[in-house]
Design brief:
This protein has 18 helices and 23 strands. It has about 525 residues and is α+β, with helices and mostly antiparallel strands. Strands 3-9-10-16-13-12-11 form a seven-stranded mixed β-sheet. Strands 20-19-21-22-23 form a five-stranded mixed β-sheet, sandwiched between helices. A three-stranded antiparallel β-sheet has the order 5-4-6. α7 runs antiparallel to α8. The radius of gyration is 26 Å and the shape is globular. The two termini are about 40 Å apart. It binds adenosine-5'-triphosphate (ATP). Adenosine-5'-triphosphate (ATP) binds next to β10, β13, β16 and α13.
Length: about 525
Amino acid sequence: MAQEDVFKKLVAHCKEYGFVFQSSEIYDGLGAVYDYGQNGVELKNNIKKYWWDSMVLLHENVVGLDSAIFMHPTTWKASGHVDAFNDPLIDNKDSKKRYRADVLIEDLMAKFEGKIDKEIEKARKKFGDDFDEAQFRETNPRVKANQEKLDEVHGRFVKALNDNNLTELRQIIVDYEVACPLSGSKEWTDVRQFNLMFSTEMGSTAEGASKIYLRPETAQGIFVNFLNVQKTGRMKLPFGIAQIGKAFRNEIVARQFIFRMREFEQMEMQFFVRPGEEMKWFEYWKEMRMKWHKSMGMGDAKYRFHDHDKLAHYANAATDVEFEMPFGFKEVEGIHSRTDFDLSQHQEFSGKKMQYFDPELNKSYVPYVIETSIGVDRMFLSILAGAYTEEEVPGKDGKSESRVVLKLPPVIAPVKLAILPLVRKDGLPEKAMEIMDQFKFDFNCRYEEKDSIGKRYRRQDAIGTPFCITVDHQTMEDDSVTIRYRDSMEQERVKISELYKIMTGHISMKELLKSLI
Ligand code: ATP
């Protein structure tokens, strides 16, 4: 199935099974704003808990924070967001559609990369074990031609970004005949800068309302509280502050579902270190974060690092963790070495010292910062994209049938246990409720009695429930139930008293956390 179709199906699945709804749908929706339904909110909460515990529980020198969305407007002057939090936008004159010029160029480069990969795959199949990829890259004329184009675009793109040269960004689009994906037209306007921050007024106009912003990232709440936390928590460097919260960006191009939203949630951690030690910690957090992603069991090949083409002027290293979405490898998390830029800026704009006294060195300085910044919603999308599976399975009368199953890591699945009485009589529902009462304190359980057992299994597969427990007449005699496993669809007869141990073996956040250290 084409990857685009997979993505469309995934979006439809999210709605049908209560994961994600368009915001204000009854009013025809609001662009790039989404609501999470009954299953979505559980999955999202589980992702957040796994991240939080991996940061705050596993690291004795990382503590949490919950700062406000509204901040003093000078915060955003100091951070550079008022002057420079821009995206280069370009309009297609025929379709009137608006795009990010940098994204159009990145898509162009991905197209060249895709062509190269295709040639290599073809050759690999043809030559089998004898295939020498390096030699093929050097000699195949089509691969060489595409690689040359890719290198040229990449070189021009990086230079244009670094020089902030909007004319050149447009020229790359024109020279490579990039067409509007919607209309196919190649008629483009100039490239302009567009600030992404939402603003509103605080206070009534009578008292002189002031313009404030909805935070475009959670990080600044951490920076301005750096000394509060350091002093009250008696924190010694190196230490980190972690925060989960909403962020808002007036994105120009709202597409790809919850990949790019105007209201979204971030999980950010700022790690404060001694100047000069930042590269060591940058490498540490890169490794730690990649381990966290890979522990989800989606397959290691689905993740890669992508170093930034353009470093922000204050950063001395930056990389993205990318996941292979149905629309290509895309950023899920950024890991940045931000030097002392943010704290120094706040020191300058507020006139308050943002320094740490280092007892070992016997001097004060502004710490350097390593940041890990991941979007909850993008993480959610990557997990769903990795978990969504359509497969043929043995059905009734020896025929095969298809099922849709979300192969979610059991620890983060929205519902852990579905309890299903085989029939709605003979005391089976009451027995099933008894089991539910026993387990509801430990696991998110769901009780279902409607429809055939087969249909109920399929419904649970579709939301990724790892275990279904069936209560039948034998249960009434010997307190045994069948446990049906989502992925293998195997069934096993076990005593109710054994259930807790079996389940915790598979769905322990503790075990998953242990795998990270
Ligand atoms: P992009 O280049 O895709 O716009 P970014 O580099 O601006 O992303 P950061 O500012 O580094 O993103 O934000 C950190 C993380 O926050 C991203 O890796 C992503 O997971 C998430 N994020 C950023 N913007 C959005 C958005 N509009 N919708 C959903 N998640 C977002």
